[in-house]
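Hey, can you fold this one?
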Amino acid sequence: MSKIQFIALMAMLMSINALSIDIMLPGLQQIGASLGVADENERQYILSAYLLGMGFAQLFFGPLSDRFGRKAPLLGGLALYAICALAIAFVPTFTALLVLRFVQGVGAAATRVVTVSIVRDVYGGRQMAEIMSLVMMVFMIVPVVAPSIGQLIMIFAEWHMIFVVIALFGLAVSAPVALRLRETLDPAYRRAFTAEVILDGFRIVLTNRLALSYTLAISVLLGGLFGFVNSAQQILVGIYGLGIWFPAVFATFASAMAVASFVNSRLVRRFGMRALSHAALLGFGLTSFVWLSLSLMGPLPLPHFVVLQAAAMFQFGLMAANFNAMAMEPLGHVAGTASSVLGFTQTVGGALIGATIGQAFDGTVTPLAVGSFSIAVLALAFVLIAEGGKLFRPHNPSG
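Sure. Predicted structure:
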């Protein structure tokens, strides 16, 4: 595969999770009404169940891909993902939907773990950060268009069709994986699939201060992102009354992340991962502080909310790829297990924090602002631990 084809395929694999969340945002109200869910906050469980299933299953797919290679576990996960999506289209109860969403997340875990492992197999250091930024840039097209696709489906069909579209997308991505993707795991790095070897891999990851600290930092930042996604429909439609314009404004935020990923891919080799991501982290903290201060003074006008949220998303885009690359950098010899542990921590931690922020929704944007500022402080603390108390200091020429 050419470099462009490789980036496009990795982006398609990563985008499966964004599609599985964002495409259904316009349909949450109808799903809840159809299945008898009275509390609008409970509709958020449709997103949280998926994220929790994906998070926990990553602990399994990483060691599996270190033993059997990347392709087979990836194709198995994609098949499970598509089957569950089709099954959800016929569920009779909300409980059944949540169970299938959890299992669907289990299948989707393969796309998160194995994709990062494949990129780490092929690239390292600033080059990995550059590739991941380009992957994220293409990947962010999905959150831009997914809510609009969901809105279009809701105009011409019922919510069940959303899951049919998700299943078809999963099958479409499976084709180039099966036909074009080569096995990237070096045979010398294959590890036995035994409890002793798996636990040893977990030990290697969890005792690496740099990897663990940056993983925890991105976990809390993801919590803020998930918190926004969980309550986006309630905020943009319920508070600001955007109605059918909800997807357009949501696309603005996703576009900010896409632009940030492109900027990072162009600058990371010149300035380094730490210079860009640490500056973005400080900017994120300042943005969150301004946002919290304004929200405490009274209702936040829509233009102010859009500008502040877009700024936060832009800074998140500068941090995400770099933090992940720095966490994976010292763990290339156990890339599958490392991606597994890091992905589990990030997804489950982010999902739980995001659910907490989302469930705190009270008809204002203040809970989201409080959550954003809190995670900025926590993320800064974890980064300082990783860096021994000093920001902006590269550890090596690739940093």
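The chain has one domain: 3-386. Let me know if you want another pass with a different chain boundary.
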